[in-house]
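Go through this pair.

…
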Amino acid sequence: MAQSKQNELNTKQKSFCREYAKTGNGRQAAIKAGYSEHTACITASKLLTIPKVQKEIQRLMEKKEKKSIMDSQEVMEWFTAIARGEVKDQFGLDASLNDRLKAFQELAKRTIDIDNRIKGVPDGNITIKVDWKKDE
């Protein structure tokens, strides 16, 4: 139990980690965390040498990066929404047919590429022909 307490950050350290992960500025992070403005640079330097503080900052930075980068599922959902005409432009108008076709092509490329990798088909050129016929 004592070992567990040693590995925990106190409130100020947690606050410092959050602020440092946001800005990368040790002095400002220390001040915002409640440390003295006069010794903020020294305090930040000391905090940044503590392994548990470094680990928490790294965890927060990785979490921040994950939120800022689309994963493959989000990309596929985005292309699907455009292809289906669910996405509006900056003026609130429907996406053009050209934009929808481009999204469909990108979606098809990724889907076929994934399917081929699963089936073990070597990389190569695949031609996709899409006939759009108006319902009569």
